[in-house]
Design goal:
alpha/beta, 38% helix
């Protein structure tokens, strides 16, 4: 069984350590834990991990956040992965730092990467995992905040949070989204 796990972010060194790139950071942690490495391929950096007889295609799109749908659609089609085996990882300013929220479907919630994926797929019935980055910024400075770097306190707590997110991804591939949501959304 194959799964497509997509971490959203922006390419380029200037974005590497920003809140908006948490999707990339989660996949980097999962790739490291799975002893695999990313290779640059069409529409992104791709790694393949194995877990309990399942194949996980890890994708960090190179299309920039607001055009992520093209990469998602390409890799779903190329690897013949159904939408129910696809998980998108994004940042969320409406959730406190490090808090995990998983949903089977739903609105983009103002996230341009999710908006584009919904447009390209023609629906919003795909699983998503939101990584809370908090919303401690003055009104009108959302872009500066999400494209800003992590605080020292956030960086200190990040390894533990990344492990939880990786565990949730592996759970999604083995016991399904509903049971995974019931377990991890409570933490």
């Amino acid at each position: 069984m194959k799964y497509l796990i997509v971490g959203l972010g922006n390419i380029g060194a200037e974005y590497a350590n920003t809140r908006h790139n948490i999707g990339f950071k989660v996949l980097d942690a999962l790739a490291e834990a799975s002893n695999t490495v990313f290779k640059t391929k069409r529409y992104g950096d791709v790694a393949e991990a194995k877990h309990k007889g399942r194949t996980l295609i890890l994708l960090k799109p190179s299309t920039f956040m607001n055009l992520s749908g093209k990469a998602v659609r390409y890799w779903m089609d190329t690897e013949k992965i159904p939408v129910e085996n696809t998980l998108i990882i994004v940042d969320d300013i409406a959730i406190p730092f490090g808090v995990l929220r998983m949903r089977l479907k739903g609105s983009a919630g103002g996230h341009n990467g999710l908006k584009n994926i919904s447009e390209i797929l023609g629906h919003d019935n795909y699983s998503r995992m939101r990584y809370g980055v908090g919303g401690d910024f003055p009104k009108g400075h959302q872009i500066d905040y999400v494209l800003g770097e992590w605080s020292d306190e956030e960086l200190k707590n990040m390894p533990d949070r990344l492990k939880v997110f990786c565990d949730a991804i592996l759970s999604f591939t083995t016991i399904g989204m509903e049971r995974t949501m019931n377990f991890f959304n409570k933490k």
